[in-house]
Amino acid sequence: MKEKINPLRKYIRNGKLPHFFCPGCGCGQILSYFLRAVDELQLDFKKIVTIGGVGCTARIPIYLNTDSLHGVHGRTLAWATGIKTYQPDLKVVIFAGDGDLLSIGGNHFLHAARRNLDVTVILVNNFNFAMTGGQVAPTTLLDSITMTTPFGSKEKPFDISKLAICAGATYVARWNTTKPTQTIKSIKKALQHEGFSLVEILSQCPTNFGRYALKTGDTQKVLEWIEEKSITRKKADKLSEDELKNKFILGEFTNKKQPVFQGTSLFREGGNRNL
Amino acid sequence: MNENLKNKNKRVNSGIHFMLGNYAVVEGALAAGCDYFAGYPITPANEISELISKRLPEVGGIFVQGEDELFSIYSIISASLAGAKAMTATASAGFNYMQEGIEYASAVEAPCVIVDVQRCRGENFATQADVMQMRWGAAGDYESIVLAPSSAQELFDFTILAFNLAEEFRNPVIVMSETTIALMRERVEIPEKESIEIYKRIYTSLTPEQYLPFKAKNNSPPEFAPMGKGYHTLYTLNYHNEDGTIDWNDKGYEKLYQRITGKISENRDKICKTESYFLEDADSVIIAYGSEVRPALDVVEMARNDGKKIGLLKLITVWPVHENLIKDIARNVGRIFVVEMNMGKYAKEIERVCLPFCPVNYITKNKGIIHTKEEIYKAIKEDLS
Question: Is the Cβ pair B238, A79 closer than 8 Å?
Fold first, then answer.
């Protein structure tokens, strides 16, 4: 009998599975959502460059059969700029956690969005620094217990999607891992979008965020916590600011066409590289 | 802007110019084939960004003014991995931030050129105080190639050399500039395009199925594969196997870093360049690098006029250290003087190489001004008497 092979397996670097993510982690799901989006769009995989910094999410590219950069904390968008401006025919996709993208990489994030760099950022927001053992992150909710906030966090978190829109991102959507259909649809749109696209995916980290902040290592319970706090944009529009406190609004927030970044100083319309 | 630019859309601005040192860096970069530059404003390096923001786009290159120096270093590395000849320029305070990227560039063997116009803390006075940072600034095991120009002409020449060495060894190369020469106008002769030697990294002739991105001969860089052609190379800071993938392996790690450091340290005699003045019969030798070579040369002339047998070794390559040559000199002379504009840093390195053959005297000055020839000569005469 012929062995059945997952149709997405062809996108995986030879011999690189199983992955290193914890049982119950959302990163495996997100890897699969991305590949399904790529497969449905029939993108030329050779022309995709994937980038990961440091963290759990940042490891997604090491499993992909693409040209990839990995292993430095927070500099994904600086890398993306060098590649995309020099070789505009490549499609650059970043996989980043909330700490990588918004804590150490916050400044690069703001400026890449401002410039409308043509890049797709898949942000996995699991509300904590997971790989280092569950410390407070810029996305951790107020009063949450983490390894470095034993009495509850006293910092207000970022709303990353909102921040991206303010900074100038031209495609922004947010979903959670319990919504594969919507997430894949948004990843497809982001991959086809010309300009800075962000898909923020709220994801479960049972090992660290679950155990410390929610007092449960049970994946289902962590997912239920995320799902309880999630609300669609349509429903959110009818609620007051007070009622929306500590809620995660899901949906597509912006999708507009604007000139993409090709360099700070352009001698030719359409980019210096197009000789 | 460069008022002497005659062929403004050409890469090689051939001719004789009266040119600012910082502009000579730009002309050197363009002549070497630079096609990606990222920078962040900082004095006294600004004229490099300013001129290249005009010159580079005109010849089809990319100029980006980033949000900080971390952006500069990482974007030149990634552009290089995408095939660019990439450069950034900064000054001491900005060079601090770039150490992080130098670690990554060394690990993934990305050719790139970094110009550091050294300055005193927060002020634009002359110094050579970053000379050890150029070598040891980043975390982890690596080797640096650092070139020290002493004039506007050498800023042009050594920038080309820096690109060639970066491409040949797939390693970051640092042009150690200084306020003294960066902000000085001098005669710069730019040769015809055909007479400039350009080295390009070796691209693999293997197919993606055959290619292993980090497989290389001992003490050599690996062959390079283009991006977007199905070679699916993983460039990671982490330990990587010959196929680029991450799997910790103690023996593999040891071997990888033996090769990454060995490709520089074991090719030292090929990489290192010096110039010698009156060494044949010298009984004392001055060793100097960068702009300190200028007063040191005058001192040799003064000493010879006084009948003193003093010679000069000018270091073009500051790192790696030209150990064999310097040891040979130490065996044959009675005294070595190291002249530098800091508290005495590279002198310690020379001492490491020269002891026990010959004592090393430090002639240092760290007050934002280059040595005068009289100061150096006075110090030498006191030491020799």
Answer: no
Is B159 a member of any domain?
Answer: yes
> How far is A70 from A50, CA to CA, in rounded Å?
9
Contacts of B369 (CB under 8 A, 6+ apart): B125, B126
The distance of B230 to chain A (nearest Cα, Å) reads: 5
Q: Give residue B288's domain range.
A: 275-384
* Per-window interface: B 260-319 vs A, CB < 8 A: none
Of all residues in chain A, the one with the smallest CA distance to B64 is: A264
Can you give the CATH number for the domain in which A155 is found?
3.40.50.970
Identify the closest residue of chain A to B98 by CA–CA distance: A75
- Chain B residue with minimal CA distance to A50? B234
| Predicted confidence (pLDDT) per residue in A37-53, tens digit | 999 999 999 999 999 99
Do residue B191 and residue B42 come from a single domain? yes
Residues 106-135 of B with CB under 8 A from A: 107-108
pTM, full prediction: 0.96
Within 76-105 of B, beta carbons closer than 8 Å to A belong to: 76-84, 86, 100-101, 104
The answer to whether the peptide bond before residue B320 is cis (omega within 30 degrees of 0) is yes
Please give the helix or strand (H or E) that residue B19 lies within, else none.
Answer: strand B15-20
What is the nearest CA distance from A184 to chain B, expressed in angstroms?
24
Rounded to two decimals, the ipTM of the complex is 0.96
The two beta strands, B15-20 and B185-190, are antiparallel
Structurally, how many domains does chain B consist of?
2
User: For B70-100, how does the pLDDT look when each residue is reduced to its tens digit (9 = 90+)?
Assistant: 999 999 999 999 999 999 999 999 999 999 9
Residue A192 falls inside a structural domain: yes
φ/ψ of residue B206, rounded to 5 = -80, 160
CATH code, domain carrying B82: 3.40.50.970
